[in-house]
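Researcher: Sequence of Serine incorporator follows. Predict its structure.
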Amino acid sequence: MWCASCLASACAGCTCNLCASAASAISRRSARLAYCGLFAASLVLSFLMRQFATPLLKQIPWINTFDYTQPDEWFQMNAVLRVSLGNFLFFAIFALMMIGVKDQNDRRDAWHHGGWIAKIVIWVVLIVLMLCVPNIVITIYEILSKFGSGLFLLVQVVMLLDFTNNWNDSWVEKDEQKWEIALLVVTVVCYLSTFAFSGLLFMWFNPSGQDCGLNVFFITMTIILAFAFAIIALHPQVNGSVMPASVISVYCAYLCYTSLSSEPDDYACNGIHRHSKQVSMSALILGMLTTVLSVVYSAVRAGSSTTFLSPPSSPRSGKSLPITRYPVGIRVLAVYLANQQWNRNQKSFTR
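Model: Prediction complete. Tokens:
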């Protein structure tokens, strides 16, 4: 018994030392990816809460205030929203604290890069406190999240377009035939994938013998937009490239699929309702990965690029070093919108 107690104390001490070392390492490097790590942890926690927290929420009187039995899906979505709200409040607090910070001589810049043990504690406390919030607050947050998820889709398109343009420019600048051929191959593969996937959408969401005019409209508009993107990119006044347009076309086809797959299982035009659980899980995982990659990319670009949300120049050594304008303020918008998209994915899954 004494040996086990000593072993447990030693393990606890090692864990604390490891956390302290990790926190100090983060403070010496850019904190951008650390904030993204907290956001990714909130997604994982949301998933775990949705899976296992339903019995707990049913025992909390200010959450389970109903005279009738609510389905488990309601408690699952409520758990996700509470984690999302706590995560948003954490980033909002630091965003407000960082308003007006322009260089590293500002004392508040140290708050941005350091104190990670305290930050993790605050993050955990805020999420736990969300379990004490009445349902009306969560309902209001859920309504706001519907608008946030739509706005985040536009933000994702901007990020994807920025990424593909940089990708296209880097290969064009090599000025070698093999890279031009590679660009052509990527473009052709993307367009073939878009049209092939659209054909599958017609099969899945326009079953024979059913009047699915609305589904056909959205799928057709996706195909029309794919052609429109290519025409606009090739227009002389735009001076664009077809490769970014092809990638955006694939992304639009994916968005069309996620929207149509969120239709009710008993809807006659939802042809994949027999495999709804498997399809929803795959769509949920893919949506989560897309969300995390978008937030990580926005954080990296916002902190290091001179063309995306960053000042156009940097002073030389010996002067105060600039930091990204509102480094956490911009990031909190991305995190808030990403939270809303995660909520949207969770709603589609629980249907």
